[in-house]
UniProtKB/TrEMBL annotation, chain A:
Keywords: Hydrolase, Protease. Its EC number is 3.4.19.12. It comes from Bombyx mori (Silk moth). One of its GO terms (biological process) is regulation of macromolecule metabolic process. Belongs to the peptidase C19 family. Residues 7-388 form the USP domain. This is ubiquitinyl hydrolase 1. Residues 273-286 have a biased composition (Pro residues). The keyword Hydrolase applies. Residues 267-286 are annotated as: Disordered. GO terms for molecular function: cysteine-type deubiquitinase activity.
Automatic annotation (TrEMBL), chain B:
Keywords: Repeat, WD repeat. It comes from Bombyx mori. SUPFAM superfamilies: WD40 repeat-like (SSF50978). Pfam families: WD40. This is WD repeat-containing protein 20. SMART domains: WD40. Residues 421-435 have a biased composition (Gly residues).
Length: 392, 502
């Protein structure tokens, strides 16, 4: 363990029950600098509040950040105890899904911040309540984005073209992470491209066209319109298999570069990925101009102000890989989670209360398996990419 | 041979594919691998299977070319092993029982190798081999007398040898690139000295430093080239004339040097991630690179700019190569010159690309910063293959949708241009810094935005293996591919036009 003495801040959360799913995610989040700084800032600002999951997290991050010893481990007892109170699914000693935990944690923290803000501005809110814009529920009452939004939230535009009347309607959805299907011997770039492939809605899955006032066949495509500061990518490696009546791990080899740009951002048509040559239905070509776009979502006010163009705000945003949550084993409720993070230019591997410095080239051990026979594997499960303009 | 139809399952491994010039067929009997497949394990981290091919001069005594012996020798590595066989091409089945030479190493893996074509004779050839632990070995697989070691004590460099090649036209100089980001020039006749080499700077420029070895008597290495900020050099390639050296690194840069003057001639930046492979066009005008952005990127030497990107692979591109024998495929396109490119990837697919004059000339519309003098020749009548959609914007303003798209497109373009200039101002003066300027290079000739550069689609894109592909060579009558499980395959070119002419 002496190996990591040079880097500082390499405290691990000591294993406590079967909690590596949370350890690995917390470890990764700690090394997402914008997130860590905001959590520590919260800790500094909020001295007296009652215990929430966020105060527990802030205490945990604070105790790691202020450790005098270079290396050691901390038991996140208080955090885990609080977590079990907050959500009954986590109230046991079973292995949990790290992505479900991440999803819960980010949303929950966001709700805590919103609730606290609403409390403190209750009177002001009452006066202006008429102006409040409601949207799909993730942002209640207050439309100002929280720091959780500012860090993790991106926007997807789903464009649907009715095959009857050719009207294109688009709808924006916010996300905290993107969940992508994995293919054998592919790259995360390709998986993200597939995520944006045109999908035909037909049969039982027809689209209700407002223009035709009926259910019609349609083509749908999802593209990224606002790129988040930290792009969290969840590789869908647990697939439900009907014949086994349970989830099976997909260990496919999916390479992920240390540096990433997205191809599936919303920009002018010339950048569209080439459509496969024998494409029976005409490719969906949505108009980029807002003129004939039928907007069916009610967006937060800020969103509207910024909409000078329908293109992505910064489609060339360059990301650096900062942390990876790795799943080891053969199924979602068994196996083990570890994390690899970048700290001060070095890559570190955290395995509950152990830490090792690893070479960047060793990351390839976590891409997955090219053979489909073995079911157990150590594979990248959640990737955290941080925008380079955030780190300089 | 069971012929699989192309309409079969998408993930089937193909044994043939069709292009304009005809059908390429896998020669199932010409598969080279280790002699004995017992105890065969795939994967195990040894993905760097490389292939070297050499045609020895015919021996004066044996005039009969139809004899059992072929003049071609093939070398490939797999895991700890290295094999040299007589290569019988497409005419005769591989005989795996009698390798010319085989080596098995302990504690280290061979990673790359190269035959010396200057000193070879009918019964002797020098083969230089690089290893995963940094050492270099020189052997003669035919005569078996020669065996020299360089960097044996790893005093020169401890990191993996990533690429090794003889200097073109030289009987005794070779260059080894390492994962440490350094290239070393060796003279095979010299020793490596007993101590660690002391260096003194010899020449330096933007993003590179060249040093010589300071010693009483001349010793290896003669020169050390530090390229970039210490990121792994993944491959290098000499231009066909031998004057220029193209180097690609994990820092995402292609750097082209004039070898003799050691001047940086130009550079390009990947869209993102490292560049993994590099190759020159047969006429030395273009450099093609592939990398972790899943793209094939073409860079023009004269203009020092990225002129096209190929999108079609589903994973990282491990080898790119120009097909030097592909002249004349494009007969129907009139006098327009056409380059044929091939690429293989970790996605187990082979892609072939046509790089047409139209694409290479259709650049006037996007003047990018740092491009010396963009030729403004308007694209002629033929439709550039790469951009059917953009053509549409211009020519048929049929539907409302398209016209609107056209307007929006124009606005966007202007915005981009000013963006680009602002962003590229720092880089306009040429090379700047190491790997930290990816943001500043975006929108310049070294790294155009994605829609500022023609995007090629592959002519064919076929899954041809179960494992990651790691090698691709073009020969007059066949292609050679290799994949990570150590199998080297030969694909016969279409026979269509040759019998007609002869």
């Amino acid at each position: 363990m002496s190996i990591c003495q040079d880097f500082g801040l390499n405290f691990q959360h000591r294993m406590f029950g079967n909690t590596c799913y949370s350890n690995s995610v917390l470890q990764a989040l700690y090394f997402c600098r914008p997130f860590r700084e905001k959590v520590l800032e919260y800790k500094a600002k909020n001295k007296r509040t009652k215990e929430t999951l966020l105060t527990c997290l802030a205490d945990l991050f604070y105790s790691i950040a202020t450790q005098k010893k270079k290396v050691g481990s901390i038991a996140p007892k208080k955090f885990i105890a609080r977590l079990r109170k907050e959500k009954e699914e986590f109230d046991n000693y079973m292995q949990q899904d790290a992505h479900e935990f991440l999803n819960f944690l980010i949303n929950h923290i966001n709700e805590i911040i919103l609730a606290e803000r609403n409390q403190s501005t209750l009177k002001v809110q009452k006066n202006n309540s008429g102006e409040n814009v409601t949207c799909n529920g993730s942002v209640p009452h207050n439309t100002e984005p929280t720091w959780v939004h500012e860090i993790f939230q991106g926007t997807l535009t789903s464009e649907t073209r009715c095959l009857n009347c050719e009207t294109v309607s688009s709808k924006d959805e916010h996300f905290f992470d993107l969940q992508v299907d994995v293919g054998q011997n592919t790259s995360i770039t390709h998986c993200l491209k597939c995520f944006s492939d045109t999908e035909t809605l037909c049969n039982d899955n027809k689209f209700k066209c407002d223009n035709c006032s009926s259910y019609q066949e349609a083509q749908k495509r999802m593209r990224v319109k606002k790129l988040p500061l930290i792009l969290a990518l969840h590789l869908k490696r647990f697939k439900y298999m009907e014949q086994f009546n349970r989830h099976i791990k997909v260990s496919h080899r999916v390479v992920f570069p240390l540096e990433l740009r997205l191809f599936n951002t919303k920009r002018d048509r010339s950048s569209e990925p080439p459509t496969p040559a024998p494409a029976p239905p005409a490719p969906l070509v949505p108009p980029p101009g807002p003129v004939i776009t039928v907007d069916v979502t009610v967006k937060p006010k800020k969103e509207k102000k910024n909409r000078k163009s329908d293109d992505a705000v910064n489609p060339d945003r360059l990301y650096d890989l900062v942390a990876v949550v790795v799943h080891c084993g053969s199924g979602p409720n068994r196996g083990h989670y570890i994390s690899i993070v970048k700290s001060h230019g070095f890559w570190l591997l955290f395995d509950d209360d152990m830490v090792d410095k690893i070479d960047a080239s060793a990351i390839e051990d976590f891409y997955g398996l090219t053979s489909d026979i073995q079911k157990s594997s150590e594979t990248g499960y959640i990737l955290f990419y941080q925008s380079r303009d955030a780190s300089c | 041979m069971a012929v699989q139809s192309d309409s079969g399952g998408k993930d089937e491994v193909k044994t043939q594919f069709v292009t304009r010039e005809g059908t390429y067929r896998l020669m199932t009997l010409s598969e080279y691998s280790r002699p004995n497949r017992v105890g065969y394990t795939s994967g195990s981290g040894s993905s760097h299977v490389r292939v070297s091919l050499v045609s020895l001069p015919p021996s004066p005594g044996v005039g009969n070319s139809d004899s059992q012996n072929s003049d071609d020798r093939i070398c490939f590595n797999h895991g700890k092993e290295l094999y040299v066989y007589v290569y019988r091409g497409v005419k005769k089945a591989a005989d795996l029982t009698k390798p010319v030479d085989k080596k098995m190493y302990k504690g280290t893996n061979p990673t790359c190798h190269d035959f010396n074509t200057v000193t070879m004779t009918a019964d002797s050839v020098s083969l230089v081999i690089g290893f995963s632990t940094g050492q270099i070995q020189l052997i003669d697989p035919i005569k078996k007398e020669l065996s020299k070691l360089y960097n044996e004590e790893r005093l020169i460099d401890k990191s993996r040898v990533t690429c090794i090649k003889w200097v073109p036209g030289s009987s005794n100089l070779f260059i080894a690139a390492h994962a440490s980001g350094q290239l070393y020039v060796y003279n095979e006749e010299l020793g490596c000295g007993s101590g660690a080499p002391q260096y003194q700077p010899f020449k330096q420029g933007e993003g590179y430093v060249i040093s010589t070895c300071r010693a009483k008597s001349t010793r290896n290495p003669l020169y050390r080239w530090l390229v970039g900020d210490g990121s792994c050099v993944n491959e290098f390639a000499f231009s066909p004339c031998g004057a220029n050296l193209a180097v690609v690194s994990q820092d995402g840069f292609l750097r082209v040097f004039h070898y003799d003057t050691m001047e940086l001639v130009g550079r390009a930046r990947s869209y993102f991630g490292g560049f993994l492979c590099v190759c020159w066009s047969p006429d030395g005008k273009y450099v093609v690179v592939g990398g972790e952005d899943d793209l094939v990127t073409v860079w023009a030497l004269a203009e020092r700019r990225v002129v096209a990107r190929g999108q079609g692979h589903r994973s990282w591109v491990s080898v790119v190569a120009f097909d030097p024998y592909a002249v004349g495929f494009e007969a129907e396109a009139g006098d327009s010159h056409c380059y044929r490119l091939g690429s293989v990837s970790q996605d187990t697919q082979l892609c072939l690309w046509d790089l047409t004059e139209d694409v290479l000339r259709a650049r006037g519309r996007a003047p990018l910063p740092a491009a010396p003098a963009p030729p403004l020749a308007a694209p002629n009548g033929t439709v550039p293959r790469a951009e059917p959609q953009r053509r549409k914007h211009k020519e048929d303003a049929g539907s409302l949708t398209q016209r609107l798209a056209g307007f929006s497109f124009g606005d966007r373009r202007d915005a981009r241009r000013s963006d680009g200039r602002a962003g590229g101002a720092g880089a306009a003066g040429g090379a700047a810094g190491g790997g930290g300027d990816a943001l500043r290079l975006m929108g310049t000739a070294a790294c155009p935005r994605f829609d500022e550069c023609p995007v090629l689609e592959p002519l064919v894109c076929k899954k041809i293996a179960h494992e990651r592909l790691t090698a691709l060579l073009f020969r007059a009558e066949y292609l050679v591919t290799a994949c990570a499980d150590g199998c080297v395959n030969t694909w016969a070119r279409p026979r269509r036009d040759r019998p007609e002419r002869d």
